[in-house]
């Protein structure tokens, strides 16, 4: 076994650069796709100017709510500077929170709380205005409910003395827990689920899985070279059997892949703040074993490297499509228990242990190796 490992290391030494590129492709590719997409989304947000004439809790709360929106990029400035930028078309629109905003909210007023400015080129003024108005209505509605509760408590001489701040905090807590009120804007789109507010959202491990598919397939081309007649004749002169040689070599590649998988876990958890659990580690391990064995089975069925590379690209595109990682196919692709049968990535993308395709890959590898063993006997 030591000789097999030593021989494999000598082969890797001759092509270490290409191997390294394919091994780090899932890590580097996933990171760059996500960071570039986030940067483009930030640049594509609608720039608006926001002027706050009073530094009260309710005014600052409204500012935070607007800043959390995925639609706009808020530039907090003065009224003079905001209007100057609006004239230069550096801002799409300008909104001013006037002095006395908190007092008006506490008194339940709904009219003339804000002022807004726009130009003829303000393409997103209407949706941004509606979003801000809806946030203000939440505050006024919460304030009206608080005053009503306080009046009821005073009228019926309740034992608990509720303040406006207590009622407001409780209503916000209920709103977040029960999702009673939700404000989201989707430009030129109608979203069914309120949980996704980002215009473009990548699944980190989904992208990594797709890139790992093509990386593993391309690195498994060694099997085609090992099957060449000039190379395969050496099996008659070496001590390990055909089955032992290939099984041990597959384990070497599997260990190498898993080493870089651990690097992916570490980098994504630190840089992209991805959570890693024991269940996910088990899911990742089963996925890696399945992918390595399937790549071996596929490569073993080809005699030409060119044909194999073409099929590897086709399989990767199909996997990316049916998995919904790159293309949003959830709208027209039915969901059901049978999706795991046609999609080897389904279990991993749902953080489950890959069972069905793992068994299929093991059976295929055993059939290939034992059949070859019998043919050489």
Quick structural summary:
With 377 residues, the protein is mostly helical. It is built from 16 helices and four strands.
Description:
The protein has 377 residues and is mainly alpha-helical. It has 2 domains: 2-37 and 203-376; 46-178, D-Maltodextrin-Binding Protein, domain 2 (3-Layer(aba) Sandwich), CATH 3.40.190. The chain has 16 helices and 4 strands. The chain has a 4-stranded mixed beta sheet, sandwiched between helices. Strand 1, helix 3 and strand 2 form a beta-alpha-beta unit. Helix 11 (242-271) runs antiparallel to helix 16 (356-376). The longest helix is centred in the middle third of the chain and has 31 residues, at 125-155. The radius of gyration is 30 Å and the shape is elongated. It starts with a helix and ends with a helix. Mean pLDDT is 78; it is low at 179-199 and 330-334. It holds the Pfam family ABC2_membrane_3. Residues 16-331 form the ABC-2 type transporter transmembrane domain. InterPro entries: ABC2_TM. It is found in: Membrane.
- Rg over alpha carbons: 30 Å
Strands of the biggest beta sheet: in what spatial order? 2-1-3-4
**Quick one: how many beta strands?**
4
Residue ranges: pLDDT <50 for 5 or more in a row?
179-199, 330-334
Number of helical regions: 16
In N-to-C order, the SSE pattern is: HHEHEHEHEHHHHHHHHHHH
How far from one another are the termini? 21 Å
Shape: elongated
């Amino acid at each position: 076994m030591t000789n097999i490992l030593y021989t494999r290391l000598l082969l890797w030494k001759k092509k270490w650069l290409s191997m390294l590129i394919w091994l780090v492709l899932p890590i580097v590719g996933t990171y760059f796709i996500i960071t570039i997409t986030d940067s483009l989304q930030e640049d594509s947000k609608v720039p608006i100017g926001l002027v706050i004439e009073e530094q009260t809790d309710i005014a600052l709360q409204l500012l935070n709510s607007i800043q959390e929106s995925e639609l706009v990029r808020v530039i907090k400035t003065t009224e003079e500077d905001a209007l100057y930028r609006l004239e230069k078309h550096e801002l799409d629109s300008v909104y001013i929170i006037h002095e006395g905003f908190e007092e008006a909210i506490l008194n339940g007023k709904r009219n003339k709380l804000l002022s807004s400015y726009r130009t003829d080129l303000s393409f997103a003024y209407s949706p941004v205005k509606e979003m801000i108005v809806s946030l203000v209505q939440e505050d006024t509605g919460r304030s009206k409910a608080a005053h009503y509760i306080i009046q009821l408590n005073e009228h019926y001489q309740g034992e608990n003395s509720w303040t406006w701040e207590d009622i407001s905090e409780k209503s916000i807590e209920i709103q977040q827990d029960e999702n009673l009120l939700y404000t989201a804007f989707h430009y030129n789109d109608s979203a069914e689920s309120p949980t996704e507010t980002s215009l473009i959202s990548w699944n980190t491990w989904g992208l990594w899985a797709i890139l790992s598919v093509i990386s593993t397939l391309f690195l498994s081309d060694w099997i085609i070279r090992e099957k060449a007649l000039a190379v395969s004749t050496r099996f008659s002169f070496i001590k390990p059997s055909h089955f032992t040689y290939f099984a041990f070599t597959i384990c070497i590649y599997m260990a190498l892949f898993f080493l870089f998988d651990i690097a992916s876990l570490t980098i994504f958890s630190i840089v992209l703040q991805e959570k890693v659990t024991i269940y996910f580690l088990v899911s990742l391990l089963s996925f890696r074993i399945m992918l390595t064995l399937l790549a071996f089975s596929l490569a073993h069925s080809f005699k030409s490297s060119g044909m194999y590379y073409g099929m590897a690209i086709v399989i990767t595109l199909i996997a990316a499509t049916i998995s919904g990682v790159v293309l949003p196919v959830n709208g027209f692709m039915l969901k059901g228990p049978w999706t795991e049968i046609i999609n080897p990535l389904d279990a991993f993308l749902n953080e489950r242990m890959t069972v069905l395709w793992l068994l299929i890959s093991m059976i295929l590898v055993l059939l290939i190796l034992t059949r070859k063993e019998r043919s050489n006997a």
